[in-house]
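User: what does the whole thing look like in 3D?
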Amino acid sequence: MYSFKNDYSEGAHPRILNALLETNLEQGEGYGEDKYTEEAVKLLKEKIGRNDIDIHLFPGGTQTNLTAISAFLRPHEAAVAVSTGHILVHETGAIEATGHKVISIEAKDGKLTPEHIKEALEAHTDEHMVKPKLVYISNSTEIGSIYKKAELIELSRFCRENKLYLYVDGARLGSALCSEENDLELSDFGSLVDAFYIGGTKNGALLGEALVICNNSLKEDFRFFIKQKGALLAKGRLLGIQFLELFRDNLYFELAKHANSMAQLLKKGISEEGYSFLIDSPSNQIFPILPDNIIEKLQEKYLFIIWQKNNYNTSVIRLVTSWATKEEKVLEFIKDLKC
Amino acid sequence: MYSFKNDYSEGAHPRILNALLETNLEQGEGYGEDKYTEEAVKLLKEKIGRNDIDIHLFPGGTQTNLTAISAFLRPHEAAVAVSTGHILVHETGAIEATGHKVISIEAKDGKLTPEHIKEALEAHTDEHMVKPKLVYISNSTEIGSIYKKAELIELSRFCRENKLYLYVDGARLGSALCSEENDLELSDFGSLVDAFYIGGTKNGALLGEALVICNNSLKEDFRFFIKQKGALLAKGRLLGIQFLELFRDNLYFELAKHANSMAQLLKKGISEEGYSFLIDSPSNQIFPILPDNIIEKLQEKYLFIIWQKNNYNTSVIRLVTSWATKEEKVLEFIKDLKC
Amino acid sequence: MYSFKNDYSEGAHPRILNALLETNLEQGEGYGEDKYTEEAVKLLKEKIGRNDIDIHLFPGGTQTNLTAISAFLRPHEAAVAVSTGHILVHETGAIEATGHKVISIEAKDGKLTPEHIKEALEAHTDEHMVKPKLVYISNSTEIGSIYKKAELIELSRFCRENKLYLYVDGARLGSALCSEENDLELSDFGSLVDAFYIGGTKNGALLGEALVICNNSLKEDFRFFIKQKGALLAKGRLLGIQFLELFRDNLYFELAKHANSMAQLLKKGISEEGYSFLIDSPSNQIFPILPDNIIEKLQEKYLFIIWQKNNYNTSVIRLVTSWATKEEKVLEFIKDLKC
Amino acid sequence: MYSFKNDYSEGAHPRILNALLETNLEQGEGYGEDKYTEEAVKLLKEKIGRNDIDIHLFPGGTQTNLTAISAFLRPHEAAVAVSTGHILVHETGAIEATGHKVISIEAKDGKLTPEHIKEALEAHTDEHMVKPKLVYISNSTEIGSIYKKAELIELSRFCRENKLYLYVDGARLGSALCSEENDLELSDFGSLVDAFYIGGTKNGALLGEALVICNNSLKEDFRFFIKQKGALLAKGRLLGIQFLELFRDNLYFELAKHANSMAQLLKKGISEEGYSFLIDSPSNQIFPILPDNIIEKLQEKYLFIIWQKNNYNTSVIRLVTSWATKEEKVLEFIKDLKC
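Assistant: Here's the predicted 3D structure for the full assembly of 1356 residues, as structure tokens:
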């Protein structure tokens, strides 16, 4: 069985493990105050092009989201997210568990626009309702779509006008930034959003996400929140060493490019067989619509998720590629599809 | 500078990294449903000698504590801990952040007795007060002491009679179990307590703690809590592989023994110089009382924590050893102390 | 200005104040352990027809909802409610503030059916999502509709089959039970639901709601939760005396009948003028659709809420009647509508 | 049986009920936006001598404390209180239930000093611990003592220097301000503390506490918190009318004076019999130390709390007086004590 189930089915890129090995027997400070974490933070600041930002490394994405959002919001304030957003669906109510409502917005392509947020603002008028305060978006989104620069600028402008924080879940930021349709750079996030995170787990690391706080008012005492939520690793250098390796010569982007190209190769092959897609995703997740009998046959050799029923005899499946996806397996999948 | 500051200043034992390397490019299930985690859980059950227990692997200790305790308690129920307990001092109010009070008990040696808990029960009489429900102990404790079997049996009996859960923070369980004064075995925890965790981070792992739930009534839906608190690692096998390596031929205990013997060597040497100790710790943390001018001199070559002022010109320091502590450095420290 | 804005615009029914006056200078136990509260609880049990239920008196509805729901649910469990449900819209995220997600279901008439809940259950499949556990309904609903006996029986059966708690927000239970279309009795709630509350504030009391817990497993330690949420009034007899007065000779139902008949009189009058309604409400809230210019004219003499825009020149307004609504004012309103 | 058990064993002062009666059938706005609440707020501002403060009326004390403290603090911040403080003992962990630790300080007389707080600050040094941010004091305290002006000035200065909020639980503020030893006025609180509340329930009201927010930075969006915690009464005028009556001609102070004079009469009588006291309380709670056999005899005619064992045959009891305590009963108690 070969897995297209998700982008965390394998270990780390070999260079990551190698970096851990090389530094393994050195002594260092705990809790992310070691020299590797400091260097990784310095390097990330350079890549983002701002020195006046705070960067904190986390073990995982849900923890990053819940720690950041609960730190940023006062008790009556709510997040706004698209109904397919990770915090609304797949984090077991982690945000609500910290006391905050997440307002759900329907959107076909998994992306929020100022119009969506305006609608949420207009529906929340007084103290009998929560107060929308933070806009949560994912890039790439949970259904593979990406934000274009013009869209992010618009969102950013709207949020600032309305005193809303703009927060980007970048679990798959690498894939978004390396998409052929992308026109955003890391530095754009530094200037357009209040906080975002750069996902490592789904792009070559063993584990690790780098939270970037751009808005000064959100920085104070942030390490207290990390510790309180249990996210301050004793051997924090484990995260620093990985991000240093991922970014020192742009390995991060190479890996994302590979994942994307494998997904696009799949898309091309499936498309040529005459099948359509739930959404025209330009990143490392694609959502072909296939006949159920073909899906069943593919399941004998491949692991993947059946996303949803499409009609009586077809379904949408999700295929995810990663830094480790092998081209030969992609080609084999396409060949198997044809038979 | 050589560090006796804590037991997480180094990386992982080389065999751990090797095990990660060997399995790195295999595909596997995410979220701890991979075969290595399954094997590790099976192996731990054997070591504990019970098959009817649930085991969940966590990235870190604070997260284990907050997830378990908040899952076990209803909103009005409180934990009881000794005033030096980790959850009372060094977890930034993580338990309170989940809504639960931690009742603090003074105890000189860092250990709770039935009398202590009785006192807490008698002080909480009705619905105007929280209801003590979970007894939190650490083994070894935050000041290096360990529980003897007779003590744990007594605590266990008292807790069962009073319908209290007994929970053991085992961040340093390896060191406790390998202490020369210890008479407890892993299987004793399986039969005497409701839940406990086996600490990996402080005993050779990169990161990882294994929570063991013995009480049936505490098992239901537990993976929901892990996910909700952000502790369900996507590449969960990272934890499984490590615990498998630590326990398949008792590496875990070898490492703890080494740490203990290094600490006891330090203790012997310091003792022979005529210095006394805050507490007669039999584990990998020792607390000598030294003259301030000697402490200052030692600080030129060694990292360690000044635990507390003792009197006008002496202080208590904490020296911690680990699986990686070098005997030559211990001997050098003792030599430096003499000069 | 005469107000049809809501059913808490006036004080209490005079008999309530009189009962408070008569008992005012007696000494009694605090915190709801006085004889009047005991008598009120006994009386309510008789009215409901079960002695094996627990009844707790609360100052207000939001507090009743948040205390009960957070007491009933474990951290990963969620409530399911219709999108117009009070806890989803008008309680400032009070349920989420206790850590629980409320799953929103769209339903035209403000009522949940087993099909709706089934849909929620099917969408929540594993530990990456919250677990639906409590079904929240209001009777009468926030838009004036009521549940029929057959509907409640169906819901109850479905909830029991699926191990879900069925909880009824009865802020306007009096109005529901006294509606001409109603075929439910208080005793039906005692046998069909797990918990419900009987609203006093909106039906003649100064303040006060009576929470009835029918399910044994939800009763334990409940007074702890009341105190923890700040809902245990020191002079708890204030609530007991009122419920005793409301129920000792069915004043409660008389008042609700009056409110309903005033609303239905309004409905008839408005209907006869040829106007239609958002929903055919049989209780004390009606939602006529009127031309905007007429609404503006009515606003010169009457207070009411503009519920929503209907089309370019008509809107839905909400008219609410109460125990205190004067028939002459209703007739005057209808007359004014005609002009 | 006559009760000296507490100061909420009776109803309201008759003038309060009368004021409710007189306004009962008027229509008014809900949720504390009625004219009586507005007038009460205006009047209280005059009494406090500041117009730039915010005043919110609450049903009860625990609710006031939990709403205010959870609104004022960020997730990692803690309150500091004396170990006998109401929030530490008798609110069922209400503050912790909102996520915040309460740091406990031992103090013989129930009062905090800058030295106490300094100690708490020095013990909380970094992000592994909670951050002390709010100082909670009660006046009068839970054991009847009161703060003198010089003490409050000192506390205020210390808190401002250390960026701590100073919060006063004034459940018995009337009794404190009317004590013969008192030298504070309402206006002093307006200038020295960040927020405080004026207790109505224990001084003549049916229910009600007036929270005063003096610090501008704590005012924003406060009504959201009141609603979210379930403390926004639908018929909010119930609170406004009472505070208006209590303060329009200083009834509040008259009632407190009466309560104090009854307690001091008790104290004098008990003292003359040769008995001593746990603390020399100048307010409406006194704590005589009596032989157990005499206590038993008194219990045949009087209700009161046995506060604590004193030695093998004496105990401390608590006697509380109120606006409604009858002088003849006080004299009778003293006479019964003599026999």
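In plain terms: Chain A touches chain B through 52 residues (CB under 8 Å). The first strand of chain A starts at residue 2 and ends at 3.
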